[in-house]
Fold this protein.
Amino acid sequence: MPICIIGGQFDLNRFKYQIDLTGTKDGVNLEFVIPDNCVPNTIQAYLNGQRLDKDIDYETYDIGAGSAYHNRLRFLIAEYAPQSGDLLTTDYVIYI
């Protein structure tokens, strides 16, 4: 993850780790909500502890056109749609 420096200071409060995503885990749903507005290139997703590859396994986007932050995650491979009981988490840096 990139280093976040704001006003010449390192800001650890912007780093979030192992954050659960919101969405139906039914083996069909491919879209999930990230609970914060994130810096796009800092989002890393995990399914049951397995690190996923951005732009291969999933993509991130924002719900508003032209927004500088991302707050949604979409799986690109249907077989990766989380099942009930699966653990889907992300690490990221909050967009300020």
